[in-house]
Amino acid sequence: MTWRRKTLLLTGGSGVVGRALIDELSHDFDVVCMRNRNPVDDVRVSEFAGSFAEPRLGLSAGDYAVLSRRVDVIVHAAAATSWREDPRRIREVNLGGPTALLELATQASAPLYFFSTAFVADPPSAQGHSPGAAAYVQSKIEAEALVRSHAVPSVIVRPSIVIGDSADGRMAAFQGLHAVLGAIVRGSAPMIPMPANALIDFVPQDLVAAVIGRLVRQEVTSGEYWLTAGDQALCARQIMDLCMGLAGDLGLSTREPRLIPTEAVDRLILPLLEDSLPAPLQAKFRDLLEFAWLFQSADPLPNSLPELGFAAQVTTEELRKTAYLSMRYWAQVKGLVAGDDDGRAA
């Protein structure tokens, strides 16, 4: 009798979550990565260039047939995540991926593990400060409905903001949260548009990967899971203290910015922007305002991690340590740590 390792098709392998998934899954699966522009370039996996916009993922009929016979599990972590993209493009990519992979899953008789976002719990208005964010979240809501309505066995996972590894803070690329917290550390943001009690929900990349690894290995092929900090999330005041503490550790003389509720920004600050700030700073502040919609509520997001056996990894204290390590790594990459030059994340 011969034993064959299962083959797992992964999309988004060059991204933050994708890299963590390769670390988690490559030991006991043959991981095949479908890539678009950016090569995965990892000896632990094989990869091919594909497109969700083309029939058969852009493969020949023969290659597609081989892939459908080979694949046992599909993990879809790729997405259009830049809020600066055209909303139509965001929707096209974020619905095109699940559509194409559900077709492949049907051919392969393989379960699909689909990455959505925890922020479907409270989507922003398309008419507010965050049209790109609204388009992204709406595309995920529609993609979830598509996956849910299909006959293919499927699991939907909804992570919140994903930050660096819980052991050392490292990650393949920095997220929008790092830009916000980095502005606090550097003292380049005189105000942060969120209330002091707003919860800042994030989870480390290795925890997200570990959850997927457990679900796949245990052959869980149904359900919807929230991968969040929930009621253990740090609030904006705690995050501010953490960032100011890091600034002090780095020897920076940083003035602490004010935390201002968004409604006050709308009423008092935005009308003055055009008169008081140069265009580049206006753009930066508007980017900050768009990202800040995630962090306006003191109500916790739903959280499935305790029921999945991961409660110990998402205590407030563990999350505080992880956030510090992630921002310390950010500081290394940005050249803010004396005698250290590590530029592997962008």
Automatic annotation (TrEMBL):
One of its GO terms (biological process) is long-chain fatty-acyl-CoA metabolic process. Residues 44-212 form the Thioester reductase (TE) domain. Coiled coil: none annotated. InterPro entries: FAR, FAR_NAD-bd, NAD(P)-bd_dom_sf. GO terms for molecular function: alcohol-forming very long-chain fatty acyl-CoA reductase activity. PANTHER family: FATTY ACYL-COA REDUCTASE CG8306-RELATED, MALE STERILITY PROTEIN 2-RELATED. This is Putative ketoreductase.
